[in-house]
Amino acid sequence: MGPPRPHRRPHRRRGRRRRRPPHRLGRPVIDEFFAPLGARASAHIRDLADGRGLGVREDEPVILVSVVKLFIAWEFRRQVEEGLIDPAATVRTTAEDRLGGTGTAGFRYDSQISVWDLAALMMEVSDNSAADLVTARIGAGSLRSLPARLGLKGTRLLGPPRSILEAVARDLDAPDLQALAHVLDAGAVSTAELRATSAWDPDRTNVSTCADLTAFLRHVWNGPAPIAADMRTWMGRQLTGGRLSRLAPSEVRVHGRSGSLPGWLNEVSVWEWPDGRRHAISVSAQPTRRNFREVELAMSRAALALTDAISR
C-alpha cells in the first residue's frame, strides 16, 4: 500500500452572490425612528422614472383620512380635461354643506364659488365641505371605481368626508351630523368609543397602502401634462401637513397631501431633486402617545432614510 492520500475538503460550488431583496432594506432603520416614541409606521418610496420601490410594511392597510382628497382632485381634473365638467360652473354653499374646519367648511355665510376653486380649497387648506361638493360633481360612483381603473388593488374609496362622518354618527347613535358635533364638543364620547367607530377601521373606511399611494403618484406625475401640472400646483400649495419635508434639503421641491386622525398620521409627497430625480414617498404612523410632533419628525427622518436608500 502506498502512502495515504491527503485529505481533501469537499468541493463547494460557488455561485453568484445573492443580493438582499429591496423590501428588507430600511426595516430596522425605519422602526428605530418610531419604536422609542411608542409608534409604528409603514412607508414606501418609488422612483417616478423607472418605478423602482422599497418600503416597510408597504402593503398594510392605511386609513386615508384627508389623503382621499388626492384621489378626488385627480378624478375631478380628469373629468375637466375630458369636457365632462365645466370648471367655471358656480356652486352655492349653504349651512347644510358646512362640516366645520377650514375653507367653506367653516364659512359663516352662504357663498357662490366655482367648482374649480372648491377643488383648490380642498387640496390647499383641506376643506372638507369642498371635498363633498367636488365629489358630488364628479359622482361618487366615479370615485369608488377609480382604484379598479388604475389597478390599485389595495385601495378602496367609499366616499368623501361627509359619508365617513355620517357612518361615525350611525356608530354612535347620533341622529345627524349636527348631533354628532354636539356629542364630540361636549366630550360625551371616550377615546376608546371613538376609535371603535368605522372611521378608525380599515375595513369600513377609505383605505389604501403606502405602495398603492406611491404608484398613484407615479401615475399622476407621468400622466397627461395639463392634469399633472395642476396636481403639482395644488399639492405644492398645501398649507397644512409638511410632515415629510421638515428635514428635506432646501433645494428639494416638495408637493404633499396629509391626513390625520387621533392615532393616525399620514402624508404622501413627491420630492423633486435638482439633479432630476423624482421620488414619491408615503409614510403612515400610528402613535400611541400624545407626542405628535416627535412622531411627525420621525416621519421626516423616515423619508430622508428612504431617499438615501433608493439613491444608492
UniProtKB/TrEMBL annotation:
Residues 43-283 form the Beta-lactamase class A catalytic domain. One of its GO terms (biological process) is response to antibiotic. Coiled coil: none annotated. It holds the Pfam family Beta-lactamase2. Residues 1-24 are annotated as: Disordered. InterPro entries: Beta-lactam/transpept-like, Beta-lactam_cat, Beta-lactam_class-A. GO terms for molecular function: beta-lactamase activity. This is Serine hydrolase. It comes from Glycomyces terrestris.
